[in-house]
Structure formats: structure tokens, C-alpha cells
Amino acid sequence: MNTSNKNDDLFLENNIIDLKEILRKYLEYKFWFVGSVLIALSIAFFSLRHTPNTYSSSARIKLLTDAEAATIPSIANFTSMAAFDINHENEIEILSSYRLKEALVRQLGLTSSFARMERFKSVAIEKLPFDFEQTINPDSIKSYQAYEVRLNAEELRINPTNNTENSYVFKDFNTRNQKHSLPFEIVIPESMVAQLIEKQSPQHFFQVVLTPIHNASLSLQQNIQVTRAGEFSDVMVLSISSQLKDKNERILNSLIDVYNLDGVTDKQLVDRNTIEFIDQRFETLEEELNTIEEIKKIFKEKNNFVDLKVSAPLSLEKQNRADVALFDIENQQVLTLMLLESLQKQNNELLPENIGVNNTSVNSIVYSYNEMVLERTKLLNSGGANNPNVLLLNKSIAKFRANLNRSLNDYSKQIEESIKQWKLRNQQYDNNVASLPLKEKQLREIERKQKIKESLYLLLLEKREIAAIKLAVTEPIVKVVDYALSSAGVVATKGKIIYLGAVALGLLIPFSILFVLFALDTKIHNRKDIEKEVSDANIIGEIPEVPRAQALLYTDPNERTILAEASRILSANLEFTLSKKEKGKGHVVLCTSSIQGEGKSFAAMNLSLAMASLNKKVLLVGGDLRNPQLHKYLKIDKKEGGLVNFLMDNSYDWKNSIIKGFENHPTHDTLIAGILPPRPTQLLTNGNFDELVEEAKSTYDYIVIDSAPTLLVTDTLLMAHLADITVYLTRANHTDKKIIAFYKDLKQKGKLKNLAIVINGLGPKNAYGYGYGYKYGYNYGYSYGYSEKVDRKKIWRNIFKS
Length: 802
What we know:
Elements lengths: L18 H9 L2 H20 L5 E9 L2 H4 L3 H7 L8 H8 L2 H11 L3 E6 L4 E4 L5 E4 L10 E7 L4 E5 L7 E3 L13 E4 L2 H10 L5 E6 L2 H11 L1 E4 L6 E8 L2 H59 L9 H33 L14 H24 L4 H45 L5 H35 L5 E9 L8 H26 L6 H7 L5 E6 L17 H18 L7 E7 L6 H13 L5 E5 L7 H5 L8 H6 L19 E4 L8 H5 L3 H10 L4 E5 L8 H5 L5 E7 L5 H13 L5 E8 L15 E4 L5 E4 L1 H10 L1
Parallel strand pairs: 13-19, 14-17, 14-18, 15-16, 15-17, 18-19
Antiparallel strand pairs: 1-11, 1-12, 2-3, 2-9, 4-8, 5-6, 5-9, 6-7, 10-11, 20-21
């Protein structure tokens, strides 16, 4: 297939895109496109036919904030937490994490899968139509294992597909009755064997595949997609596609449960740590209370103490109020020291919340600290210790720990200062109660310590009950909007889209190939290419490519071949061009080209014959002294006498070398070049050639000179002054566009007279404005958009009139 005869002429004059011309170029290769599309559609058809149906399932959940999740008002009051915005990116990462997928694989037993193998495709099934039990532990599956289960009327055959084991044959269709190394057991009742064999053809069988947990988890992680329902929505859409609808729905519903349980567990972790912390403090407080009770008992028994008699009610009232204030402050000091001790002992662990410290800043820092610890734990599970978010949280946690430690120390110092002040006041009040015995004072100190410990004990007991209630009624983190639902039809194997894609691909492939070929093509193919390079080019003729079955010469004036019609048109156009100038005897037509092989001699020969067919006396001169070609058309020896003989010796009678080579063209004469001269340039400048042309003008109507290519030698330029018109030959699919620049230079500098271009070698698809053909006449048209079929005699009658 020859594609070099096309040019990527995407633009016409004034840089206007000619879509019609572009479309015409590609439509010439319509069979490429049709064949490519048919092949693509065939591939798509067989692919769809042998591809199992795949269905899509999706579920929707809404992520709940703490305020939205709270169902018991008292719990919200106890915690007094504000609802924080949800970090959707983090939640998507958790839902997509490998950890949750591994939990799903273990929970649903997804390490084993089944398929029914048909002639050209594998169809997944939820379970085998007979009893199957996996006997191998999922953690013991180290590599992919596949087994073929085949049935016939006599036996059950199980073939491992790894080719490392032999087939297992069970005559009674029960693997439990025979020793084997298979990782599963199969039992088929005899009543079911005939039914199973009847339903399947000999080419059909079942396949059992065992997959390692790691691989199954990774596959599930890739198949499940998690997206937000909208940019500002808290609803998450979970979707999965496979051949089994029920399995899809079961996986998505289980993923929702696992994710919710994971979030609830994270919430419960704070409450569990709080309960454990309080339980540890209970043991210490109980020992301290028992010790104080024992001291009080011993003190009373030793001092025979019964009751305190107030002697100064006013002093005692002030002292009591001071004691209450001092008690509250000392209580805060104990709680602060307990929290500071817990902070120093634990590293990146949750701290107890709301244990009674009356400092808003400290409580806020503890809450924010616990939130970051929980978020860090989630990111560690999903992203690992090197996750940038984990590293950033580590820095934030460290800053919060330092801030909390500093706040607790500052608060402790404030409490100590307050205690000192209140103790000074108590000292003043004690001095006012001088009548009180020292023993009563000592007893009051013992009772005050007892009250502090009892109050602290009751406070921690209350906090423990609150944490226990929260642990028992922990709110869910998600609300199920829609449980998993499957699509009604097939979604993965979309036939229309695949067929449309096949058509698009079938058109794109040949288009791409042709586009590249057109882009790389730099040859001229028709007159448009020349007019694009030279806008004022005078194109007087187009010579079609002559079929091999036809003659290369216009030997009979009555011929009606493609070549004959083109030659007549060329001669008529040449006659019309010359008629614009002053007419006289012997017009000189100089035929040349840029390079060799463009058909210069061929065109000169047929042009001269076409002129002779009009009863004009024509002399064809072989002016190419370096590579003469006319003798080949006349089938004579090139060493016979000719132009070179006269140029070397003007006494030589060149008329004796005239050749009458065509019986049907009696007015046509040919003067070949003759022998190859040693110095052609000197011969053309000695004046003999000018003398020969002037002499021939008095005898012939037209002198057609076949000269040498202008780009290779200067011979043509030396005889250009003799020409009335210069016929410049180009050849379709042969002449490079860059060579047209040389023609343009010759035209601008006036080195060749009256330049007229003839395009040679045009195929039927390259002809601009008309096509060559013949059947009881011939067709031709013009580039103005119309064409007509005309009688041949009528055409020549109009030419003669012009």
C-alpha cells in the first residue's frame, strides 16, 4: 500500500482549514477504517461473550459526631464534650485500611473461593453445590492454591493445578473415607451425583482456590472503594464490584460493623483506663482511711475522749469556714498530684478525665491530649509509625504533655500558696480558741484528714460510676443510611460502552497511522501543493500516470487513451498561453525540470506529438547533452548523428540527422542529442545552438527542446534566452516540496522565460479538478465544483476556435 502519495495539506490559502479536503484524504483509505472497526468489534464481541457478568453493590453510612451520637442526656452532661468536626480524610483511610480488610477476611472466611469453569470463561459461585469443608487453618495458607474438581459417573477427581501433586481419585465421591493431603474435604451424596453430571458438560468443572490471608486482604482492599457522597456531606459511600451480588452485600455490611466496632472500642478505651486508674487509687485510699480510723480510735481510747465543747461559737464558726476552705484546697492539691503522677508514669497513653480538678485550662488540655492520643493510635494502625500525620501528632502530643505538666505544676504551686495562707488564718483562729484543749485540737486534725480521704474516696467512686455507665452505653460512630444494595443489571461489562470504545479504537488506529504518514510525507501530489508553495504558479497541464498496459507515447492522432487526452489538453493550454504573446513563426518551447526522473523527456515527446497531431510542423530537439533520453523512445542508437555533431562543427548539416519516427505524425521531426560530448557547457555557448534554433524557426511552427535538469547543471540556463515559454516538469509523489523553492527563485529572478508548470505522474486520486478515465468518451471537471461529460470532437472544435 503506497501512502507516500498523500500530503498533510491541512491549510489552504489564507490559512483556512479545508475540512472537506482533509476528510477526502482519509476517506481514500476507507477500507482501512472499515477493516479496523470490524476487527475491533469482533474482538469486543468475543471478549464480552466470554467475560462473566460483574455486578456493583454499594452502601451508605453517615459519620456521627459526639453530640449526634449521644442518646442519653446524662452521659452528655457527665462528659461535657463539645462536638468536633469529623476529619473525613482520616476516616476514609481507616475504612480503606488493610487492618479492617484482614479482619473481614478472617470473619467471612474469604480465603477460599469457588468458580464454575465453562468452555471459555470462569463463573464465580458463592459456594459449591455439595458439601465442602476447609480443613487447613487460614494462617497456614502460604501460597496461592487452585484445585479442579471434576465429576463423572464413576469417580470424583481432584486435580491440583500447580502440577506438583498427582490427581486424587475418589470412587465413592467422599474424601473423608480416604487418606489424602488435600486442604479440604468434599462429600457428594450418591443421589446428587447423577443430577450434577446431567447439568454440566464434559468441558465444565468446578474450581476451588485457596488464597493467603495477606493476598486476600490486599485484593479486598483494592476492590472496595470509599468516597464521600458530596463535598460537604458526612455520608460515605462504600462500593464493590464482583460476580456475586450476595457476597458483595455481605462484605459491605460486615465492613460497616467492623468499622463501627473499631470506633466504639477506641471510645471505650478512655473509660477503661479511667476505671483502672480509679481502682488503683481505691486500694491506696482504703488503706489510708483504715489507718486514720485506727489512729482516731487509739487516740480516743488513750485520752478517754467523748465530745468537743464549744466555748467560743464565733471563733469556732470562723475556724470551721476556714477549715472547709482549706479542705477544698487540699483536696485539689491531692487530685492535682495524682494527675501529675499519672502523667509522669505514662508515655503517650490516655489520662483520666474529669476527676474533680477545678481548673478549666487543665481539664481542656487533658481532653485535647486524649483526643490526639486516640487519633495517633488510629493513624498508627492504618499508616504506620512513619506516617507524616503520626510524626506531626507525636510532636503535638509532646507539646501538650509539656504544657499539661507545666499547668499542673503551676496549679500545684498556687494551691500550696493558698494552703499557707489558710493555715496562717487557721493559726489565728486557733489562737483565739485558747480555751480549747490540745487534745481536742489534735482530734480535729485527725477528723479533718479523715474527711479529706472520705471525700476523695466518694468523688472517685462517683467518677468510676460515670465511666462505667459510659462504657456500658458507648454510642456508635456511624449511622447506616442504606445497607448494601446491588445494581439491578450488569455494570462492569457494559456492552454499549465497550462496543463504542471498539469503534473509536478501530477508527483511531488507522487514523493515527495515516496521520503520521501524512505528516512525514514531503512530496507534492497535486496542484494544490504547488499553489500552496507558489501562489502565482502557472500550471498549464497535468499528465496522468500511464498504466503499464498502455503505450508511453501518443503515436496515433486518433487515440482516445488517458495519455492522449492529457497530451491534447496540455498542447491546447500551451497554445492558449502562447497566444497571449506576439505570434510569429517558430515558437520555442523549453522543457526542463529540477532533478532527474521527473518525466521531462517523456512530457517533451508527447507534447511535441500532440502539437504535430494538429497539423503543426514540430521539431523535437534533444537538448540534454549529459543524459539524453529521446533515442530510447525512438528505439535507435544514441551514437547516431544529432545536435552534438552540429554544435561541434557548424558545417555539419543537422537536417540530415532529422528522424521521422512516427508514421501517423508526418509533420513531426526529431533531432536527438547524439554522442556524449566532453564539454557540454562550452558547446552550448559557442553560438551554434542559437544558429540552429533561428534556422529551425523559419521551417517549424514549434521547436520543443528537451533540456537538462536546472538544479543539477547550468545547461538549461544557457539556452533559456531562446525560449518563448519554459515548461517546468514536476512529478507527483516524486518531487519534494523543498525543490519548489528553486522554481520560485528562478521565477523571481527571471532566469527562465514565461515559466509554466506541468505536473506529471498524477494518479486518479491526485488529479486536481478532474479525473482521467475513458469509456465511450472521457470525464473532466474543474475545481470550481462542477463537472460534465463532453463530446471529444466538440472540445477540439472549441480549441481550434480559440
